[in-house]
Write a structure and sequence with these properties.
The chain has helices spanning 11-22, 83-93, 107-121, 152-165, 170-182, 231-245, 266-282, 313-319, and strands at residues 26-28, 34-37, 47-54, 65-66, 71-77, 99-104, 127-132, 184-192, 210-213, 224-227, 253-260, 286-293, 302-310, 323-325, 329-330. The N and C termini lie far apart (39 Å). With 331 residues, the protein is α/β, with parallel strands linked by helices. It folds into two domains: 10-182, Rossmann fold, CATH 3.40.50.10440; 184-319, Hypothetical Protein Tm841, Chain: A,domain 3, CATH 3.30.1180. It has eight helices and 15 strands. β6 (99-104), α3 and β7 (127-132) form a beta-alpha-beta unit. The protein is 31% helix and 25% strand.
């Protein structure tokens, strides 16, 4: 295992401290791995928090700042943050108008956020939650937690946070977030696995000519193991899956997010985006905004994901609103 670190059990702590030192607009709540806007709580604004296991940077700590999250809870690598961290994060960002939690659909994250909400209800802090479940690689069923929350979560956060910055009430911000979550879909793939520092070995193996379609951001098994294919064919396969799950009509506007999983060169992400763009153009689907880069990674996994979000005028306005954070800037 080759990683830039001191000790595996101190990796998250050291990363959080490095983020604070590099970014003067954030602070860390003492004794926690909770990253907070320096000016939180922001008077007159609904607070918005998110969080999850570390290893997905810049999500979610890199999205803390003006126009985006008020706080993010960082658990250990691929491990849910504690209830205590979540409680402290909510308290830190509550300015009296309530706090919205945007949670990826993983059992541990949601159980802990729900417990934190129950505890704070007794203190009179209003909370609400929206779950994001954009991963089309997981089919819904009654005996599972359902679809995973993956890179499309960032787009949901962007919409909700812009609504909050515009002065929306807790109910309005929750509605904006839920509408965004209902209109986003993602599919990803892996070319090589990642190594969790505390484990020291890959979570799965792929042959030299193999890739896996539908891999999760924690290295969960995908839906198909296949030979490495061209960017053209990959884009076609991924869009077929996305558009079968969420049809988009000719002339409709969407946002496209091509997200790197951690070790994919930007060159390759732009090549993939080119193919996605041209395929959508052929279908006469209008791309109002595109994002290409690393937004929700999986340590050093090589691969990428493609997300599409259907836009109406309100979602589009919130999506294009300014934001200034370490991991996402838009002016």
């Amino acid at each position: 295992m080759k990683k830039i670190m001191n000790r595996p059990d101190e990796a998250v702590r050291d990363m959080i401290e490095g983020m604070r030192l590099a970014n003067p607009d954030i602070r860390i709540l003492p004794g926690t791995s909770v990253i907070v806007r320096k000016d939180a709580p922001v008077a007159g604004k609904v607070g918005i928090i998110s969080g999850g296991g570390s290893g997905h940077e810049p999500a979610h700590g890199g999205f803390v700042g003006k126009g985006m999250l008020d706080a993010a809870c960082a658990g250990d690598v691929f491990t849910s943050p504690s209830v205590d961290q979540m409680v402290k994060a909510i308290r830190a960002v509550d300015a009296g108008r309530g706090v919205l939690i945007i949670a990826k659909n993983y059992t541990g994250d949601n159980l802990n956020f729900d417990m934190a909400m129950e505890l704070l209800e007794e203190e009179g802090i209003k909370t609400a939650k929206v779950k994001v479940h954009d991963d089309t690689a997981v089919e819904e069923s009654s005996d599972t937690t359902g679809r995973r929350g993956v890179a499309g979560t960032m787009l949901v956060q962007k919409v909700a946070c812009a609504c909050a910055e515009a002065g929306g009430s807790l109910e309005e911000v929750q509605e904006a977030a839920q509408n965004a979550a209902d209109n986003v879909r993602t599919i990803g793939f892996a070319l090589s696995p990642c190594i969790i520092p505390a484990v020291g070995k890959p979570g799965f193996f792929l042959g030299d000519e193999e890739m896996e379609l539908g891999t999760g951001i924690h290295g969960e098994a995908g839906i198909r193991r296949m030979k490495v294919d061209t960017a053209h064919n990959l884009a076609k396969i991924m869009l077929e899956k996305l558009l079968a799950d969420m049809p988009v009509e000719k002339g409709e506007e969407i946002c496209v997010l091509v997200n790197g999983m951690g070790s994919t060169p930007l060159m390759e992400l732009y090549i993939l985006y080119r193919e996605v763009h041209m395929a959508l153009e052929e279908k006469e689907i209008r791309i109002a905004k595109a994002y290409v880069g690393e937004y929700m990674t999986s340590l050093e996994m090589a691969g990428a994901s493609v997300s599409i979000m259907k836009l109406d005028e309100r979602r589009k306005r919130f999506l294009l609103a300014p934001a200034d954070t370490a991991g996402f800037r838009q002016f």
